[in-house]
Design goal:
The complex is a heterodimer of chains A (215) and B (462).
Chain A lengths: L9 H10 L7 E4 L2 H7 L7 E6 L12 E5 L2 H14 L7 E6 L4 E10 L3 E8 L4 H4 L2 E5 L4 H10 L18 H17 L5 E9 L4 E3 L2 E4 L1
Antiparallel strand pairs in A: 1-4, 2-3, 2-4, 5-6, 5-8, 6-7, 8-9, 8-10
Helix pairs in contact in A: 5-6
Chain B lengths: L5 H4 L3 E5 L8 H11 L14 E5 L5 E2 L2 E4 L11 E4 L6 H10 L4 E4 L10 H13 L3 E3 L5 E4 L4 E4 L6 E9 L2 H14 L2 E7 L8 H9 L6 E6 L5 H13 L3 E6 L13 H5 L2 H12 L2 E3 L2 H13 L7 E5 L2 H14 L8 H9 L13 E2 L6 H13 L5 E6 L7 H14 L5 E5 L6 H9 L8 H11 L6
Parallel strand pairs in B: 1-2, 1-5, 2-4, 5-6, 6-7, 10-11, 10-12, 12-13, 13-14, 15-16, 15-17, 17-18
Antiparallel strand pairs in B: 3-4, 8-9, 8-11
Helix pairs in contact in B: 3-4, 6-7, 7-9, 10-16, 11-16, 13-14, 14-15
The chains are: A alpha+beta (215), B alpha/beta (462).
Chain lengths: 215, 462
């Protein structure tokens, strides 16, 4: 359902994110197994394969993602399966990424008719909407706003010194992401909504694994 | 410093345009509001001390006031005009006000944007702007300021004067709030109904009350916000000036069902954004009218203090409940020191089985003397910054005496907030009124008191 906005392509999203120093996980778009063969050595296994394109949403539910791939053979099998699942969709090809482990977060942006640009933070992944564990602020965000947003959500448990159940995320990287997202929303008026979901964070970094930018 | 809404909120002279001889009409009620302070009797009502003029071309006098054919026929200056003529003739009347150099106008009349006639409303805004007039409404109840004996509205009665400014996008709510306030002793510095907001909006008023010495708390009932950034700036200004700003928004659950194209779009609905923006600006978000006004009452009549609170009760159950609620809202119940307990013993007024810990259970036979002695010892302790006083109605209870004891304690320790939970109804009413009238908020449920205390002590989980 894309009522009025258009989804930015993978390359354009990547470029826009880079302009604000927002780290997208390493990835390359390709169409054929031959192309996959050429780029596979740029990545460390395990690999992730995703179907991308303007008509693609809810990739997990529609089985348009293959995880834990270790070899070109496995990639080949996954490509066939994903293509079958994507039948009838408006598709641009595949995206190969390195698989990340860590805490799944969501960072988002939207425009509110009364308050203007808004930045959102919370527990991410496919359960983001189910749990609704989010905090919001009207842009521009101060550093304190970003800190408060983290502490308003249950995800704050991951940012403590001991983390939660062996998982720990670093605050500074997430604060930077939040403040840069705020800057992007204020500077790029054509961006109407964006989802960075999941953002995967651990004690060393926070990277955007999936970016949906609507213009 | 003169500010542009002074004529609206602190007028020296008021003209009622469309004053009527018909006792059940708005034009009659507004004039009576100025002449007597109320239509339905209130002991807080008095005649407006400034000049009151009536305008009605078809009458000689109404309620003993000489009628003028037009506002332009009035000899003296007019700060504020209250207009209650039919919508179609509001524009010419407003033009006459501009020619007369009236400084502000309240347009009570309905029949503008709310019935689809945005053009007619736009015309009013233009006339007001050109004439250098501020305009409240149209389609509003008006302005009430108890301490100035100003009832420039068709509000039926006059509430107690105090520190809460109630700004509402619903005029009808204001009327019921006034009636309610006479029971609950809500203290108002002002009640202002916004109506359709052709000119003056909620942010203008928040900004004005931010600079009003009488106002300690600003309570807003809103249904829609047009300029969110302006409201945020006004709220920040009020909070920086030490005011407590509380908001309640109607229509919280509507408008969430639109097609959404992202997780963020789904999660950040318009109410969620409103709430986040208000919190970000330093306002307190409430979810009910009783909450909005009950908290505004506490914030406007009690000082703020450190989060170190004692609960004094004459019943165990109420104390247990209050402890739960205090924990829920982050109110810290301080441990009573041994030295303080010894001082309590030394009063020789404690029951042998009194609890000797917080909540301090004085036991069911506690009378006013025991309450007063206990509170005096506890609040003299530097480590105790505030008290919640619970009274359940038992055979030996002297509720009015207990209320007077609390009031004496409140006076003795002016920097320490004291709020009450005199639980009951019919037979506790006199004591509740006594407390409320003298600036000690009383709540009928310990949960409400715990929440109010959380606001006063700046608790984290508020």
């Amino acid at each position: 359902m894309l009522p009025e906005y258009e989804l930015l392509s993978y390359e354009d999203s990547r470029q826009l994110a880079a302009k604000y120093g927002l780290p997208l996980v390493k990835g390359r778009r390709f169409r054929t197994l031959d192309e996959a063969k050429k780029i596979i050595h740029e990545f460390k296994p395990p690999f992730v394969l995703k179907v991308i394109g303007p008509g693609v949403m809810h990739k997990t539910e529609k089985r348009l993602i293959a995880l834990n791939l270790e070899s070109l053979d496995e990639i080949s099998v996954a490509m066939d399966k994903l293509m079958r699942n994507a039948k009838g969709m408006n598709v641009d090809g595949f995206l190969m990424q390195e698989q990340k482990a860590g805490v799944e977060l969501i960072i988002g942006g939207k425009r509110d008719t009364a308050f203007g640009a808004v930045v959102l933070f919370g527990s991410g992944g496919i359960m983001a909407e189910l749990y609704g564990d989010v905090a919001m602020r009207v842009a521009p965000l101060s550093r304190k706003d970003a800190l408060d947003m983290i502490s308003e959500t249950k995800a704050r448990a991951f940012f403590t010194e001991r983390g939660f159940r062996g998982r720990r995320a670093d605050e500074e990287h997430v604060i930077k992401l939040l403040m840069e997202t705020s800057r992007l929303m204020l500077n790029e008026q054509r961006v109407m909504e964006l989802d960075f979901n999941p953002v995967i964070a651990d004690s060393r970094e926070a990277v955007i694994v999936d970016a949906r930018i609507l213009v | 410093m003169k500010r542009s809404l002074d004529a609206l909120l602190e007028p020296k002279s008021v003209a009622v345009i469309g004053a009527s001889r018909e006792p059940r009409s708005v034009g009659y009620g507004v004039l009576q509001g100025l002449l007597k302070g109320c239509v339905m009797p209130s002991k807080y009502a008095k005649r407006f001390p400034g000049k009151v003029y009536a305008v009605n071309p078809n009458a000689k006098t109404i309620q003993g006031v000489k009628c003028h054919a037009s506002v332009k026929d009035i000899a003296g200056d007019v700060d504020l005009a209250v207009i209650c003529v039919p919508a179609k003739i509001v524009p010419p009347v407003l033009r006459e006000c501009a020619e007369k150099r009236v400084k502000a106008a309240v347009v009570v009349s309905a029949g503008f944007a709310e019935v689809g006639d945005a053009e007619l409303q736009e015309e009013l805004a233009t006339i007001a702007k050109k004439g250098g007039m501020r305009l409240l409404g149209p389609n509003c109840l008006g302005v009430i300021r108890p301490s100035k004996s100003l009832n420039a509205s068709f509000g039926l009665s006059m509430p107690r004067a105090g520190g809460a400014a109630f700004i509402t996008q619903s005029g009808a709510l204001a009327d019921s709030v006034i009636d309610w306030a006479l029971e609950e002793m809500y203290p108002f510095s002002a009640i202002v109904s916004l109506g359709n907001q052709a000119d003056v909006d909620e942010a203008d008023l928040v900004e004005w009350f931010a600079g009003d010495g009488e106002t300690k708390a600003i309570a807003l009932y809103l249904e829609g916000v047009k300029d969110g950034k302006k409201l945020m700036a006004a709220v920040r200004k009020a909070v920086a000036a030490g005011k407590t700003v509380l908001v309640l928004k109607g229509g919280r659950l509507s408008g969430g069902a639109k097609a959404v194209s992202s997780h963020t779009g789904a999660l950040a609905g318009s109410y969620a954004v409103f709430e986040a923006a208000m919190r970000q600006s330093g306002a307190v978000v409430t979810y009910g009218l009783a909450d909005l006004l009950g908290l505004a009452q506490a914030a406007s009549e009690q000082p703020k203090a450190g989060n170190s609170v004692v609960v004094v009760t004459n019943g165990g159950g109420a104390g247990v409940l209050c402890t739960d609620y205090c924990e829920e809202f982050g109110v810290n119940l301080v441990k009573i020191r041994e030295a303080t307990l010894r001082k309590l013993d030394a009063t020789k007024l404690m029951h042998p089985a009194y609890s000797r810990r917080n909540p301090l259970d004085l036991i069911g036979d506690a009378g006013a003397k025991r309450y007063e002695a206990a509170l005096d010892v506890l609040l003299a302790d530097d480590a105790i910054k505030a008290a919640i006083v619970i009274q359940t109605l038992q055979t030996m209870t002297e509720s009015e005496g207990d209320a007077r004891a609390v009031l004496r304690i409140r006076k003795k320790y002016p920097k320490k907030p004291v709020i009450c939970v005199f639980m009951g109804g019919k037979y506790s009413k006199a004591a509740m009124q006594l407390l409320g009238e003298n600036g000690v908020p009383n709540y009928d449920d310990p949960r409400k008191a715990a929440k109010a205390m959380a606001l006063l002590v700046g608790a984290q989980r508020f």
